[in-house]
Amino acid sequence: QVQLVESGGGLVQPGGSLRLSCAASGFAFKEYPMHWLRQAPGKGLEWISTINSIGTSTNYVDSVKDRFTVSRDNAKNELYLQMNRLKPEDTAVYYCDWASTRGQGTQVTVSS
Fold it and tell me: Which of 26, 32, 78, 81 could pair with 2 in a Cys bridge, judged by C-beta atoms 3.0 to 4.6 Å apart?
């Protein structure tokens, strides 16, 4: 069955960095675009980034552009999100997404 397992979250100070990972299994990972979403406390799910199947095209929501970078390793069936210059408003549970299937998420908290 499809499984997505996010990791790499934690507590970081404003201006800091984190790298999230998502291990995918149960489907042909290399054939599909992948997405990152997040859900902040008390808010709905927000799309933040998409990467195409071969990693040559990426898109971001304006609020993370120039700070976050999505990438993938199709040989390892892994998706990544490098997050730099983090802000308190980036605090959320982060999910990787394939065809509206998501993992359990990883908590990112940005606070001093």
Answer: 26
